[in-house]
Amino acid sequence: MKSFLVKNLCKIKESIMNIKAIILDMDGTMLNEESKVSEELHRYLRRLRQEGLKIFIATGRTLLEIENVVPEEFEVDGFVTSNGMAAFVEKEQLFQHSLEPSLVEGLMEEVQKRNLYYEIHPAVGNRYVLKEDQGMILHMIKGERPSSVEENEWLSRKSAIEEHIDWKRELHPNNISKIYFFHTDKGKIKSWISFLEKLKLQHGFSSSSSTENNVEIMAENINKATGVEYLLERYNLSFEEVLAVGDGENDLPLLKRVGYAVAMKNAPNSVKEYVDEQTDFSYKENGLYYYLSNKFKLDK
């Protein structure tokens, strides 16, 4: 047993020494329960970049959603947004995928029958909900957080309807980056996911969930890993030189490809079984900061 542990520790040390880039998820990983980046983590990411490591973000959020939650002086080397639908280096957009307009129209008809919370995210501009569904959306998110919903996701929905959602009278199905669906009843989301799986036989699109209360749809064969490929190509890096940290099933395509994969303590077992290591603390406990500061020890 001791020999096995020593070999495993040596393998971990060797893998870390080869790391040239770190890719981070946001919700449930980098953001705390108030959907903010802690000051300690912000400072440490800056120091890691000063030491020559590339820092990338790979998230289900759009670029506008990212800007709404990170500190003003927050800087990284690149973003993969909307679970792989777009990528950015500084303000330069490397690519952008969009959903089929006919798919968007058909989904809106069906989602209204099911009374699901949704957010339509265009490639440019604010996310929006149809004005006719405003009453249903507000009713679902009012009051105290249901025990079935994670605190950070509930706060994100509260923040969305109070500050970030536009209420539009008409659907504009062109140039849609993603559609986010949510319900406090996990059973309803599970049923919706089953419907989406059947719909994939008629329309080409991908879907992913970060919790049991949500699912997002993107273009076909798109995920965080396909988006990260563009960033690695830009910086002449390989997946083997990357350490990635995530907590949700939408992180799995990326975690399965990188040289060193890390799951947050709060990740489900379905994610933890595919990683090399997990953090000692959750996102609520500033777990990412403690993990990185322990793994990449920098001089004071």
Describe the structure.
The model is unreliable at 1-9 (pLDDT under 50). The protein has two domains: 2-97 and 223-295, HAD superfamily/HAD-like (Rossmann fold, 3-Layer(aba) Sandwich), CATH 3.40.50.1000; 101-219, Hypothetical Protein, Haloacid Dehalogenase-like Hydrolase, Chain: A, domain 2, CATH 3.30.1240. Strands 5-4-3-2-1-12-13-14 form an eight-stranded mixed sheet. Strands 6-9-11-10 form a four-stranded antiparallel sheet. It has a two-stranded parallel sheet with strand order 7-8. It has helices at residues 2-17, 26-30, 39-50, 63-67, 101-114, 134-141, 151-164, 186-199, 224-234, 252-255, 269-272, 287-295, and strands spanning 21-24, 54-58, 78-81, 86-89, 92-96, 117-122, 128-130, 166-168, 176-182, 205-208, 214-219, 242-246, 260-263, 277-278. The protein has 300 residues and is an alpha/beta fold. It is globular, with a radius of gyration of 19 Å. The relative contact order is 0.18.
Sequence-ordered SSE layout with sheet pairings:
Elements: H1 2-17, E1 21-24, H2 26-30, H3 39-50, E2 54-58, H4 63-67, E3 78-81, E4 86-89, E5 92-96, H5 101-114, E6 117-122, E7 128-130, H6 134-141, H7 151-164, E8 166-168, E9 176-182, H8 186-199, E10 205-208, E11 214-219, H9 224-234, E12 242-246, H10 252-255, E13 260-263, H11 269-272, E14 277-278, H12 287-295
Parallel strand pairs: 1-2, 1-12, 2-3, 7-8, 12-13, 13-14
Antiparallel strand pairs: 3-4, 4-5, 6-9, 9-11, 10-11
